[in-house]
# Entry
Amino acid sequence: MRHFLSIYDVSPEEAEKVLLRAKAMKDGDIRTTQLSGKTIILIFEKASTRTRVSFEVGIKHLGGSSLLMTPAESQLGRSEPLEDTAKVLSRYVSGLVVRTFGQEIVETLAENATIPVINALTDQYHPCQIMSDVLTMYERTPKLDQVKVAWVGDGNNMAHSFINGATRFPYALSLACPDGYLPDQEVLDRALALGAKIDLSDDPVKAVSGAHYVNTDVWASMGQEEEQRERESVFAEYMVDANLMGHAAPGAKFMHCLPAHRGEEVSTEVINGPDSIIFDQAENRLHMQKAIMELILA
Ligand code: CP
Ligand code: NVA
# Structure
């Protein structure tokens, strides 16, 4: 039994295998019966469109069934201990897919469950999203060791995931984050110690220069809504617009995990433009969830 709480839960070889399997799942529109007779619980403590739907549909494509649990409609919202919740749910179902706040929440669930736990986003990481974003890049540029990825904006869960991803896939990552909003030093140090090609500055032009993929994300993530105004002023120089994209490699693609705020972290022109690949990213969530579930749950 194994979990997928961060991309470190898969080896570089497994990560590559999952990537190729997701591509095959997509190309062949593969459906299986590997989850036949199994039920997976989706615990969502935060809103979701893509992650929830792609997991639910993916579970159906693998022959299983799913059940959504939210704090408002379960004892989670009335502070039943996570340890008890994990032990109880383990008696009913075959896996947990969890979207929540602190990474320690998915860790506690995993420590106490006797079934696999998959991280569907925490404040710290979004491992399923980075796996799927790598698929979106790989489809266009299979030689990932020749790819430069730019990250512009908040040093958040997605920035951390791109950093972690650089230990599993050979892309070079250049981040530009404002002072006070940098990725966690220990996340960075761990990846650098493993030889990931990563540099960090506060300069969006430097990060984007020569990049093949330019990524950004919202300035205030879920749970940080009250910081929105303050962050709008801190991040004002970090909008990905046509001018900034002009520093990227010719034909560079714009990426965003979505949902996006047009006119904040990205201009409407760029996100709606011909080099935006946001909907391919969104579609690939489905194919990648199936490949991840095949490894972790089947
Ligand atoms: N990208 C992503 O995780 O989207 P949702 O919040 O809609 O699941
Ligand atoms: N950083 C964003 C990602 C949403 C998919 C958040 O955590 O809200």
Residues 66 and 82 are 20 Å apart (CA to CA). Residues 7-126+285-296 form a domain with the Rossmann fold fold (CATH 3.40.50.1370). The pocket of norvaline (ligand 2) is lined by residues 121, 156-158, 217-218, 221-222, 257 (CB under 6 Å).
